[in-house]
Amino acid sequence: MWSNFFLQQEEDGRGGMGALGGAGSKSGRTGKRARPPRMSDSQEGKIKLVFFLVLIGVTLTVLGMGTEFWVELSQPKHFRNNHTCEMAHYGLWKSCVRTLWVSDIDPERESCGPAELPGESNCTYFKFYTSGENAVIFKKTTQKSLHIAGAMLALLSLFMMVMGSVCITMSISKSVPFFLKPATICFVFSGILVLLSIIVFHQSVLALLASDHSIPLHHELSWSVACVGSSGAILIFGGLIFLLLSLPYNPLEKCFRQQSSSDA
Fold first, then answer.
1. Which of 97, 105, 173, 229 is at 20 to 30 A from 121, Cα to Cα?
2. Are strands 71-74 and 84-90 parallel, antiparallel or unpaired?
3. Helices 41-66 & 251-263 angle (0-180, nearest 10)
4. Among candidates 200, 173, 171, 176, which has minimal Cα distance to 187?
C-alpha cells in the first residue's frame, strides 16, 4: 500500500512540474519585448539632412562665442580734434580698443569706425571671470553680473547642442527614432538660450553706456551677434523638424508624397 502511495505522489509531482514548465515557457514566449520600430531609409536621409543644418547652427554659435565683435563702441571721429579717433569692440571674453585714422573713415560717417579699418589695436581679456574686477572702456564701467549671465547662457546652450548631437548620433547609429524627441528638446532649448544670451548681453551694453556720460559713444551690434542670432533660429527650426520626424504620423512624409504624386 505504501509503495503504491509513493509512486502516485511521484507521478503527481512530475505532472505538476511539467505543468509549471509549460506555463513558464508560454509566459516566456508571450512576455518577449516587441522590438522598437526601425527607421526607413528615407526617414534616415531626412534626419541626416536636418542634422547637417543643425551642425551649421552649432558652428555659427561657436564662431560667434569665440570672437570679440559682439558690439562696437565708437567715439565721434572729430572728438579728439586730430587725425585719429578711437573705437572699441568686445565680446563675451575680450575687449579691444582701436585707434583709426580719420582720413580712412567714410566722410558721411559721423562716428569712428568700422573696426575692419587698419589701425592700432590693444586687446585685453576681461578679469571679472578670474579676479572679479570690472572693465573700464572709455571711462565707462561694465556690469559684470549681466555680462557673466550672458556668457553662462551661451555656454549652457553649447552644452545642450552637444547633448542633442549625441542623441541624433545614437538615433542614426541604432536606426531608431526614439532619440529624436530628446534631441528636439536639446536643440530647441539651446536655440532659446542663445537668443536669451544676446538679450542679456545687450542689456549689459546699455548698462555700460549709462554708467558715464562724459564721452559720447555710438554703439551697434556687430557680426558676431548676427552669427549667434542666426544659429539660434537654425537650432529652433531644426529641433522642430526633428519633432515632426519623430511622430508616428509624419506630416512631412505626407507632403512629400503629395508633391511627388502631383509632379507625376
1. 229
2. antiparallel
3. 110
4. 171
SS (H, E, C) the chain: CHHHHHHHHHHHHHHHHHHHHHHHHHHHHHCCCCCCCCCCHHHHHHHHHHHHHHHHHHHHHHHHHHCCCCEEEECECCCCCCCEEEEEEECCCEEEEEEEEHHHCCCCCCECCCCCCCEEEEEEECCCCCCCCCCEECCEECCHHHHHHHHHHHHHHHHHHHHHHHHHHHHHHHCCHHHHHHHHHHHHHHHHHHHHHHHHHHHHHHHHHHCCCCCCCEEEECHHHHHHHHHHHHHHHHHHHHHHHHCCCCHHHHHHHHHHHHHC
Cis peptide upstream of residue 107 (ω within 30 degrees of 0): no
| Predicted confidence (pLDDT) per residue in 122-134, tens digit | 999 998 888 888 8
Residue indicated by cell numbers 559713444: 217
pLDDT at 153: 96
CA distance 107 to 127: 37
Burial of 76 (0-12, 13-18, 19+ CB in 10 A): middle
pTM of the model as a whole? 0.78
